[in-house]
């Protein structure tokens, strides 16, 4: 079937067309410029931009895929979690198209979109282990089906991407912080500054990243007080130290998550990473070796499918559609929507 996917939960307005596993078109209209002067995503501005641009994103996707609206078999849309104004724009658009075209509507959890992407780009079988590391999330999930996820642990405060972005801001590097911190860290000495390895002494797979930011701020201010400014080398060394701390913590917690996952004797054991931070080479390299140590497969979708996009929403929608799961006009936009139904009670209606 031909599935139209829509994504508008954060600061990317995206539309994609998917047939089977073929991504016919994947349009992502970013809003970085719109929010640049505010130092973060402004929900009100994001919501307005989504409402204004969804039309255009869909038209562009149809053009690129050389199909027309009536060719579409189903419409998959991010129904949460995310900034409610943006999610609402997408859900309203999808409902309108569904009604107008008389085609099924499928509400997709944004995190499920990220978590299922490795199946779009690689031949992973259920259950596989997923490390989702992005600007807003950090969690270990056992993915059992398009609707069945078990959360093994996750961050108790900041997400790693957020920590990278804050680090860049504190050191005067450009946003998004991940790529700029990684870039200068290559010329840095990771051992010069001391960064904590939070929660390693605590059992389980939970993580914490807010302490890293505090450590960075303290050491930066101490240096500035001592020498009235930071040299390029100081900055490189701080970035290297910070990145090494994130890498070490994620590596150790991944070892623990793998142990829990392997206890279930999965048929074809694999770890997949997704989310923007999965672009980080230091992290990828260490995860590869952690997987090699436990003889499990490691896979990461190409970067443009790791960060927010609508192809992942169309793909998750296609799996739900194949399982006979669709929604009706009662589908609601949800600011919060945990993937693991056993972890936190669901708010509102849903699958
Ligand atoms: P979410 O998808 O959880 O709602 P998001 O949309 O902000 O959050 P993504 O688009 O998946 O997240 O990823 C963006 C984040 O990834 C940013 O915080 C960015 O700094 C980080 N990032 C991108 N490239 C790298 C890199 N090479 N190293 C570390 N972090 C990176
Ligand atoms: Fe995302």
TrEMBL record:
PROSITE patterns: GLYCOPROTEASE (PS01016). Keywords: Acyltransferase, Cytoplasm, Iron, Metal-binding, Transferase, tRNA processing. Residues 23-315 form the Gcp-like domain. Substrate binds at residues 132-136, 165, 178, 182, 280. GO terms for biological process: tRNA threonylcarbamoyladenosine modification. It is an enzyme of class 2 (transferase). CDD domains: ASKHA_NBD_TsaD_bac. Fe cation binds at residues 110, 114, 308. It catalyses: L-threonylcarbamoyladenylate + adenosine(37) in tRNA = N(6)-L-threonylcarbamoyladenosine(37) in tRNA + AMP + H(+). Its EC number is 2.3.1.234. Its main location: cytoplasm. One of its GO terms (molecular function) is tRNA N(6)-L-threonylcarbamoyladenine synthase activity. Binds 1 Fe(2+) ion per subunit. Belongs to the KAE1 / TsaD family. HAMAP family: TsaD. This is tRNA N6-adenosine threonylcarbamoyltransferase. The lineage of its organism: Bacteria, Pseudomonadati, Pseudomonadota, Alphaproteobacteria, Rhodobacterales.
């Amino acid at each position: 079937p031909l599935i139209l996917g829509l994504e508008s939960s954060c600061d990317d307005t995206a539309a994609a067309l998917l047939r089977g596993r073929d991504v016919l078109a994947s349009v992502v209209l970013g809003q970085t410029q719109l929010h640049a002067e505010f130092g973060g995503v402004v929900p009100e501005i994001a919501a307005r931009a989504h409402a204004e641009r969804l039309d255009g994103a869909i038209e562009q996707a149809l053009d690129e895929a050389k199909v027309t609206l009536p060719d579409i078999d189903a419409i998959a849309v991010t129904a949460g979690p995310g900034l409610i104004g943006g999610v609402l724009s997408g859900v309203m658009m999808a409902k309108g198209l569904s009604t107008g075209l008389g085609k099924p509507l499928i509400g997709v959890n944004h995190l499920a979109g990220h978590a299922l992407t490795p199946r779009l780009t690689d031949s992973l079988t259920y259950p596989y282990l997923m490390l989702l590391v992005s600007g807003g999330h950090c969690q270990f999930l056992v993915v059992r089906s398009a609707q069945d996820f078990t959360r093994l642990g996750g961050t108790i405060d900041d997400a790693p991407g957020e920590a990278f972005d804050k680090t860049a801001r504190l050191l005067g590097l450009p946003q998004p912080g991940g790529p700029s911190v990684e870039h200068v860290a290559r010329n840095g000495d990771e051992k010069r500054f001391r960064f904590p390895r939070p929660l390693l002494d605590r059992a389980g797979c939970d993580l914490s990243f807010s302490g890293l930011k505090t450590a960075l701020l303290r050491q930066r201010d101490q240096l500035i007080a001592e020498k009235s400014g930071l040299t390029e080398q100081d900055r490189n060394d701080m970035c290297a130290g910070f990145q090494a701390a994130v890498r070490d913590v994620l590596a150790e917690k991944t070892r623990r998550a793998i142990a829990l996952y392997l206890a279930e004797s999965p048929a074809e054991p694999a770890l997949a990473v997704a989310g923007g931070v999965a672009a980080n080479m230091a992290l990828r390299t260490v995860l590869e070796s952690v997987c090699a140590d436990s003889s499990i497969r490691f896979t990461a979708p190409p970067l443009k499918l790791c960060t927010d996009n609508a192809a992942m929403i169309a793909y998750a929608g296609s799996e739900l559609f194949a399982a006979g799961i669709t929604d009706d006009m009662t589908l609601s936009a949800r600011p919060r929507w945990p993937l693991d139904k056993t972890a936190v009670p669901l708010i509102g209606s849903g699958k």
